[in-house]
Amino acid sequence: MNLQRGIRFLGRSQSGAAAVEFALVCLPLLLLMLGIVEFGRAFYVRNDLSYAADFAARKVLIGQVARDAPAGEAQQKLESAVRESFQGGDPALLQIVTGKETVDGIDFRVLSIRYPFTFVLPGLSQSPFHLQLSRRIPIG
Q1: Is residue 96 part of a domain?
Q2: For residue 88, which phi and psi values (nearest 5 degrees)?
Q3: Domain limits at 132?
């Protein structure tokens, strides 16, 4: 009789229910919050890459990088402009490629930037994914 009463009492007991519910909800909520933070960081770095590319494009458009400069000299000036304006990470990790192309008789200098973005949380991803963008700047 005492055993049945003890089992009935444990079945109606609510003493640890809040702790169990918190344990079930805490992990998904924590993962969601960390995912939002990581997405925000990636968006910030991507926005800063865009700013750096626009900064370099302005240098070409206002004539600080000569429009008819050889490709090597123009690339060096554009790389230094991008690296000095990039604040979202390590500028040494930027992979910058410049080139020239002609579309419908108009000459363009093409600036492509790539940055390896790594997560802050260890184990989230073993390899970085690359944020990249390009700008086509009219030069002629």
Answers
A1: yes
A2: -85, 0
A3: 11-138
Q: Are 139 and 130 in contact (CB under 8 A)?
A: no
Does residue 4 belong to any structural domain of this protein? no
22: left (phi over 0), alpha (psi -120 to 50) or beta: alpha
Domain count for the chain, please give it. 1
Q: Could you give phi then psi for residue 20, rounded to 5 degrees?
A: -65, -45
For the chain, first and last CA: distance in Å? 97
The alpha carbon dihedral of 18, 20, 23, 26 has a sign of: negative
1 is a domain residue: no
pLDDT tens string, the chain, 140 residues long: the values are: 576 766 666 566 667 777 888 888 998 898 889 889 988 999 999 999 999 999 998 988 887 776 666 667 777 888 888 999 999 889 999 999 988 889 999 888 889 999 999 888 766 667 788 999 999 988 86
